[in-house]
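tool=predict chain=A
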Amino acid sequence: MELHAGDGGDAVPRAAGWEAFQVNKGALCQKGATSTELLNPAVRLTSPLLRRTRDAELEPVSWDETLDAVAGRLASIAADRGPAAVGGPERVEAVCGVPVGDLREAARMFAGSGSGGGSSTRSSTGRSTGMVLTARGTEQQADGADAVNAWINLALAAGKAGRPYCGYGAITGQGNGQGGREHGQKADQLPGYRKITDPAAREHVAAVWGISPDALPGPGRPAVELLASCGTDIRALLVALVILACGVRPRVALARSAGLPVDRGILVDTSGRSLGDERIFAIGDCAEAVDRPAGALAALDDARRAAASILGSPPLPAAAAPLRLRTYGVPGADVAVLGRPRAEAAIQFIQFTDQRRRTRKVLALDGDVPVAAALVGDVGAAAALAQAIARPSAPAPRVPAALLTSGAGRGAGGFGSA
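tool=predict ok
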């Protein structure tokens, strides 16, 4: 995106696409193309507005007068009807369980006036700054608009709006989702965010596509309802995507009802292809195959081999070593589990236990080669152990037990009694 200065000193800048950009050739979505229109001062507030009586007109006032009026009115309501009439932090504490003192301290820190040091971040003008930056969780809930408005109101009340390095914003994590919606790939929309039930929108899109508006379907089912209906009144589903899942226990009921062989996961071959239907692939922790490692790296390897099979490319080799690496944030203790010994191997174990530090470490050896390990309370040795287990053909360490002490000291501790 490029921003161009408008005509005249006070003109609104204009957004334009960068045609040299190879991905979209300068094409902008509707939101990006019209984003600078929000800067038009003719349709934006430039100062607080106050209605002095219920029937009076709004008039511009200073921030000081505004804050005095709000504080005075809240104090008057509390005096007449009790503190519960304005609630505030006390109600939040009752609903969320966050102590009132913590809420007030956080607000003071954000405003830059509390003892918590919130005023330590300042702009070049010397004024304290603060920004609320969230992902999509704030808005994607039943009362998302109210949650967003709460953040915006906090920024306004703290004087953190309309200034450099201040304000509220959300970072989208759904670039592909946004592009799909631009093209109408949503059950209740046509391209360009047009409602599929809007007669004017249906007529416009139908004219572009050269079809009758009556040929366009009505609103479809939301995704959750659609998937829940598979196998009942939904008897066929065209799928044009690959789902990768790791670190989860898969739900196999849908696959089982579709007649696919399942156990803990969907049973697949080395290419990720279902053993019951060669047209279906499963990768990640929703799949199960013989001698298949677990975790994100293994899931990515699954994806590479499945993609090669789908595209007709030469088969890719499987992962070089079936290494399992799991870390768990168990309350009070860090835990790491690495590797998986072969069932036929003659395994020997080396174990260190430190009751004072409440840690335990176990190393499994096939001869003198490390094949698996478990760490509780101190996972600092996980990196060195992972390298040793993943490369069984490398020279064995002279003192295998020394692997358990490498990087020691990182972890929360936490088993047994101190």
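DSSP finds eleven helices and 17 strands in the chain. Residues 63-81 form the longest helix (19 residues).
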